[in-house]
């Protein structure tokens, strides 16, 4: 298994500002992912955070809006840039320590006002 | 693009009733996972099914993976108010494709 810590757990931000979310895992993992869950909806994959190289973004998500860092095998950050109310969501970090089994952090609840 | 159709979207039942949630796709998945999410928390993994035809039981929850690995079901026997939550199926290995989710409410 894997224990995932996300910071902040909640935040209220002003539109136009940026917020960086941190994800810390208690063990080294090859694969780390960032998801978004908009209010009342399911989860959508934003990107795969690759250690030592640029993140791989899914359709509809771009690096300028969601820059990601992955400096080592236990840590990643996701920045939500130039926020608007439409960015109000839960942002979730996940890891796949053993291929088939995926674990999630508790999420970062972001409200943009 | 692999898609997962989850149904029903909403389910409101009385304590003690049985229920089944379905997850269907036209694509084959190497594995499929079921999660439960409560308000204010991240998804919690319930089970991973890998082999076609596989059946796994977790107390009152029974999970089945279709023979062709394109569909799965979650059956809850004698539902309790504590089962209330959002149930999500997700397919894939690493990068997950999620179903739309089923919001289950069990009334005492």
How do you describe this structure in short?
Chain A has 113 residues and is mostly beta strands. Helix content of chain A is 0%, strand content 49%. The radius of gyration of chain B is 13 Å and the shape is globular.
What features would you describe in this structure?
- The complex is a heterodimer of chains A (113) and B (108).
- Chain A has no helices and eleven strands.
- With 113 residues, chain A is mainly β.
- In chain A, the strands form two sheets. In chain A, strands 2, 4, 5, 6, 9, 10 and 11 form a seven-stranded mixed beta sheet that branches.
- Chain A is globular.
- In chain A, 35% of the residues are buried.
- The mean pLDDT of chain A is 93.
- With 108 residues, chain B is mostly beta strands.
- Chain B contains no helices and eleven strands.
- Chain B has strands at residues 5-7, 10-14, 19-24, 32-37, 44-49, 55-58, 61-65, 71-76, 85-91, 97-98, 102-107.
- In chain B, strands 2, 4, 5, 9, 10 and 11 form a six-stranded mixed beta sheet that branches. Chain B has a five-stranded antiparallel beta sheet with strand order 1-3-8-7-6, with no helix packed on it.
- In chain B, strand 9 (85-91) and strand 10 (97-98) form a beta hairpin.
- The relative contact order of chain B is 0.33.
- Classes of the chains: A mainly beta (113), B mainly beta (108).
- Chain A binds chain B through residues 31, 33, 35, 41-45, 48, 90, 92, 94, 96, 99-107, 109, and chain B through 6, 30-31, 33, 35, 40-45, 48, 50, 88, 90, 93-101.
């Amino acid at each position: 298994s894997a224990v995932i810590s996300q910071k902040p757990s909640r935040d209220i931000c002003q539109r136009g500002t940026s917020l960086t979310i941190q994800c810390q895992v208690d063990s080294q993992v090859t694969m780390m992912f960032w998801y978004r869950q908009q209010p009342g909806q399911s989860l959508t994959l934003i990107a795969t955070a690759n250690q030592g190289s640029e993140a791989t973004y899914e359709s509809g998500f771009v690096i300028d809006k969601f820059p990601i860092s992955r400096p080592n095998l236990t840590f990643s950050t996701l920045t939500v840039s130039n926020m608007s109310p439409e960015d109000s969501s839960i942002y979730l970090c996940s890891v796949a320590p053993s291929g088939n089994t995926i674990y999630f952090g508790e999420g970062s609840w972001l409200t943009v006002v | 693009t692999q898609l997962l159709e989850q149904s029903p979207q909403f389910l409101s039942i009385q304590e003690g009733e049985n229920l089944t949630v379905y997850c269907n796709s036209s694509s084959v998945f190497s594995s499929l996972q079921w999660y439960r999410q409560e308000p204010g928390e991240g998804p919690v993994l319930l089970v991973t099914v890998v082999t076609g035809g596989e059946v796994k039981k977790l107390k009152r929850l029974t999970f089945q993976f279709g023979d062709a690995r394109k569909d799965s079901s979650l059956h809850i026997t004698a539902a309790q108010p504590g089962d209330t939550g959002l149930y999500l199926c997700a397919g894939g290995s690493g990068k997950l494709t999620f179903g739309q989710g089923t919001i289950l409410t069990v009334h005492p």
